[in-house]
Amino acid sequence: MSAHSQAGRVALEQKDYDRAIASFRQHLRVYPKDYHTWDLLAIAYYFSGQPRRALRYLKFVEGNAQSSTNYLYQGLCYEALAPSRFDSLDTTDLLRAKQYFAIAAQRYSDDEAARATIELAILEYNARNKAAARHWLTRYLQKFPRGGFAGEAVRLLESIRDNIWLGTLQGTKKPDMEQALFRYNRLSLGPLPHYWFVQGGYQYSEVAGQEPKEGGEISASDNRSVAMLANAGVGIGPIRQGETTVFAGYTYKQSWDSNSDRLSRWADSPIDLDSFPFQADLLLRRHQVYGDFRREFGGKFFVGVFGRMEFARAGSTYFPSADSPIFRQTLNQGQTQLLIPWMGMVYAEHFRTLIYAYMNKQINFNSPELSSKSYDFGLSSNNPTMSLGLSQVIDWPQFDAVVDIEIFRYEFIYNDPWLDYQRQGAFIGVEQDPIKNWTIAGIAGYYQDNYVFPRVRSYSCSTVNNNGEPTLTARTPLGCARTDTGTLFQLGLYWNRTQFQRISALLQYISNDNPEQREFNQTVKNIQLMYTWAFPSVRRVSRFVDRFADAAFTKGGR
Questions:
Q1: CATH class of residue range 3-161
Q2: What is the rounded CA–CA span in Å between residue 120 and residue 71?
């Protein structure tokens, strides 16, 4: 035993895992065939929160070490790497964990074998596998009748006999992999909890609608466009202090649009820079800062508030337009202020209910009459209003699926009162992992918009008569109520290439319908391809990105 080996053992006992790792590595440079120290090095990596790296060293000496320590910690590493869903034991990592626990339990009779036996029994117990759990608990009591887990084994056997399950049990305490990710991963920006992402992609959009013509007629309109997308963001959190959680961040979203006319002109003269289809006048950029605060009460009840501020700008001095000097400027387009106070509860482990107020204010600098808000406290009118929503989330870990059902009622109040309307509707979203590294998600929604003030028409309220022909007979101006209905269908396919990379494809179809006033009929089709690079994982960051992008209007059908 070298001085470095002894120092590593002392550091390991003191739970100074970084120092233990450094000492063991120095020792192994001189004594590479000290297989037990390889096991100790792996144990230090495991407890430092790096089970994947620990597994690498355990595999390296498995054939030479052949010890209960090696097999026990291989099982613990696989268990730590598996999804944190104990009732999903058909995953590859958990099957391997059970395999290595069984080897240690059957071949050896030392302390590591005892731990492997009880760990395997708890896994089977959590999966409600009665026979297997009873087998390993009985085996533990036979081999280790005075072991440290004997009392727990007796208690579990009694619960199985009485068919009274004690809930999900925790075996060996798992390492803090999240803290290790921030401390050791090369993509981390620092030791504090944080996240970042960058995205690049392409979008094709097709909008088909109706245009009113003189004499009450309408005609079809069609518009196709393409866009290059670029998004990025950075945030800190979640920062947890007791039952309080806080996080905040900044995101940048860029949409660089073009249209069919520009694409056609460029196809005719592909070497002409002035005809390049992506010009700065159609470059829209959004800067957003946001924050989230939530507090837990008793593990079941939660309250919180989410707020964000967004600034939209068109054009760029860095990408000047080749068409005309008048486009070589940056214009402020608008500002969005959003506040969502909410309260919720968790019950039956996999059910979450949330009620929230949607307080959104949009300021349009170019068209002030289109500025709007979704609330009125009675300061500007005699009718206080509030936009509300109710969400129910169901988590089905046995199917690797999450279902989100939401109903909402929003008020939209404009500077031009003729545009005011009430939106009510619902949507259902489903996300499921059919195979490893692949996710499929879908949304289906319905809404109804009731406009507060009627439209004034000099013809019939209906755009067409019963025969489907234009109504041309002049009448006294009428007040025509307007009610639109809409549907949304969205399908997404995501390939999680690694923990940090994702390639996704999104199809979206939105239809706004008004059978009486067909000039308001419109369908929108979007196809989007996106590449995402994120830390600490694409799955975690995608939830932040989607939420902070404020998808309420999209889910509502706009």
A1: mainly alpha
A2: 13
